[in-house]
UniProtKB/TrEMBL annotation:
<dbReference type="InterPro" id="IPR050766">
    <property type="entry name" value="Bact_Lucif_Oxidored"/>
</dbReference>
<dbReference type="InterPro" id="IPR011251">
    <property type="entry name" value="Luciferase-like_dom"/>
</dbReference>
<feature type="domain" description="Luciferase-like">
    <location>
        <begin position="26"/>
        <end position="315"/>
    </location>
</feature>
<dbReference type="InterPro" id="IPR019949">
    <property type="entry name" value="CmoO-like"/>
</dbReference>
<dbReference type="Pfam" id="PF00296">
    <property type="entry name" value="Bac_luciferase"/>
</dbReference>
<dbReference type="InterPro" id="IPR036661">
    <property type="entry name" value="Luciferase-like_sf"/>
</dbReference>
<comment type="similarity">
    <text>To bacterial alkanal monooxygenase alpha and beta chains.</text>
</comment>
<protein>
    <recommendedName>
        <fullName>Luciferase-like domain-containing protein</fullName>
    </recommendedName>
</protein>
Length: 352
């Protein structure tokens, strides 16, 4: 999708339906128990190749730091690896946590990626650190989320050839003059408002911040200002989804994600764990955190997933869905995306 692609606004009379909108993949290059980061990258490339074959629109990886179960900290490097191993699917960051970086560095990195893989690179930007406070300090950036609007503007200026010249003191090479789609990511209405003001596409983290979903989409759509890159608002919605052949199997696979929630609640994040019965292992606080997180997750067999996805689409009128599936076993994870492709992607009929 180009940034000029039009979208349907919140008040549209034409309801979106599965099979009519793009479906994409959000990956963290998860490191599962018993394996290494090297294995995680191979699994990500395996998934990206299948996603390309099944007709997924884009494949994004996210920046996180100091998390033993996430290998995508050097996000632009991972994107290059995935782009080299695929041929047509769009690759991008979902996202780069801009307060961690000098905008010039990100302009150069993504200018390099776009130069190597033209027309295939997206740059999603977030304002959270993607880590804890101590890790943010270790990243050596003396900025905060409050600086995000200025950082976005600085970054965009490095791509805009009209604002630079050979006589300018600082230029992004490569980067300057390249048309790299920039997205703003958010889990509240802050980035929704900024994306609307700047006329940029907006990706909402519905997979971990469902309580702010309706408010963020309303703010984005009602305050959107057309720009030279986007004529109407465009919303991509993040969804946690686990599909399997039966509801019971999907529920069991989802206990891997539940264990991640518990580990974060306890302040001890670790590698991705195999599914397990958690019924006797959780205290009331942990159980509440798990239930809250799983409220927005779509878990089930083909019919359940199709029904719940269509309900979500009818409610939000999202222009695109980007799906993350936190499943321990690679074959099960591939099968989950295969089921989704069969449901929601007209060309997604390939089998493993």
């Amino acid at each position: 999708m180009s940034q000029s692609q039009e979208s349907t606004n919140l008040n549209s009379k034409s309801e979106k339906k599965l099979g009519e909108i793009p479906i994409s993949v959000l990956d963290l290059s998860q490191i599962v128990e018993g394996k290494t980061a090297a294995d995680a990258f191979k699994d990500s490339l395996d998934l990206a190749r299948h996603a390309e074959k099944w007709g997924y629109n884009r494949y994004w990886v996210a920046e996180h730091h100091n998390m033993p179960g996430v290998a995508s900290s050097a996000t632009s490097v991972v994107i290059g690896y995935l782009a080299a191993g695929t041929s047509s699917i769009r690759l991008g960051a979902g996202g780069i946590m801009l307060p961690n970086h000098a905008p010039l560095v990100i302009a150069e990195q993504f200018g390099t990626l776009e130069s190597m893989y033209p027309g295939r690179i997206d740059l999603g930007l977030g304002r959270a650190p993607g880590s804890d406070r101590r890790t943010s300090i270790a990243l050596r950036r003396d900025v905060t989320a409050d600086d995000f609007p200025e950082l976005v503007e600085e970054l965009r200026s490095f791509f805009d050839a009209s604002k630079t010249s050979y006589h300018a003191p600082i230029r992004a090479v490569p980067g300057e003059g390249l048309d790299i789609p920039i997205w703003l990511l958010g889990s509240s209405d802050f980035s929704a408002r900024l994306a609307a003001y700047q006329g940029l596409p907006f990706s909402f983290a519905g997979h971990f911040s469902p309580d702010y979903l309706d408010r963020a989409l309303e703010v984005y759509r009602t305050t959107f200002r057309p720009s030279k890159t986007l004529s109407e608002p465009y919303v991509m919605l993040g969804v946690s989804l686990i599909a399997a052949d039966t509801n019971e199997r999907a529920e069991f696979l989802s206990t891997t994600m539940q264990q991640q929630v518990v580990a974060l609640t306890r302040g001890r994040p670790g590698k991705i764990q195999p599914p397990a019965d958690l019924s006797s292992q959780l205290d009331p606080l942990e159980l509440s955190a798990v239930r809250k997180r799983m409220e927005s997750a779509i878990v089930g067999d083909r019919d359940t997933v199709e029904r719940r996805l269509q309900e979500l689409l009818a409610r939000t009128q999202a222009d695109e869905l980007i799906v993350t599936s936190g499943i321990y076993d690679q074959a099960e994870r591939l099968h989950s995306y295969e089921i989704l492709a069969d449901i929601a992607i007209p060309s997604g009929k390939a089998t493993l």
